[in-house]
Write a structure and sequence with these properties.
Elements: H1 7-28, H2 35-42, H3 46-52, H4 56-71, H5 75-82, H6 85-102, H7 108-115, H8 118-122, H9 126-149, H10 159-180, H11 182-185, H12 187-202
Helix pairs in contact: 1-2, 1-4, 5-6, 6-9, 6-10, 6-12, 9-10, 10-12
């Protein structure tokens, strides 16, 4: 009889594989990484890796799925820090600006490489990407709607359009910074200008 393996043990093994794989993807990029690289770096046997994952794409997508869960916003915690709806919006923008400016997402080159090569063909990442976008959109919409209901905001455009514009701006400056770096992309000035435009869209002129 085969030994019974606990759920906790399985999760621990998966985490070892995923952490090792992430480190290899960061070092080598997506396309250059092989299952053998992950086996070697994790110390888990070939059979052990294949028990949980069929290929490098499945491993990469699981890394992205777990990243998205970790990145979910806790609006209650944000409001505890920000107190006002404008404060909550600018807090989120400050956080996003810091992530972009510090270039702390070391996995980003591998992500873009995957999106425009294998991912372009398989489309397996699309549900994850759509869920990530939806989560961010819903967060921005929730804050703006709350601000409108509390008479703090008087949006001059549909709330969904404003939320979409915030998301598009952040994604655009993210890509620009990835290619050119934070200094050439003028990240600080870009965010400063965007906050001014956002205020015009949300506050009535007195």
């Amino acid at each position: 009889m085969a030994p019974i393996v606990s759920v906790e043990h399985k999760e621990k093994r998966k985490l070892i594989i995923l952490q090792a794989a992430k480190e290899v993807f960061i070092k080598k990029g997506y396309n250059a990484t092989t299952i053998q690289d992950i086996i070697n770096h994790s110390g888990v046997s070939r059979g052990g890796v294949y028990t949980y994952f069929q290929n490098t794409e499945q491993i990469f997508l699981e890394i992205l799925r777990r990243r998205d869960l970790e990145d979910e916003w806790n609006l209650e915690s944000i409001y505890n820090l920000a107190q006002t709806n404008w404060g909550a919006l600018t807090f989120l923008l400050d956080q996003i600006q810091e992530i972009i400016n510090s270039q702390s997402n070391l996995l980003l080159p591998a992500i873009y490489e995957y999106y425009f090569t294998i991912g372009w063909q398989t489309k397996k990442h699309i549900p994850l990407l759509e869920a990530r976008i939806k989560q961010a959109m819903n967060g921005f919409i929730s804050i703006i709607e709350k601000g409108k209901n509390e008479k703090e905001f008087s949006p001059i455009l549909p709330i969904e359009d404003i939320a979409g514009t915030i998301l598009t701006f952040c994604d655009g400056i993210y890509v620009n910074c990835f290619h050119l770096g934070p200094e050439k992309s003028n990240v600080y000035k870009q965010f400063q200008a965007f906050r001014s435009y956002l205020a015009l869209a949300l506050f009535k002129n007195n």
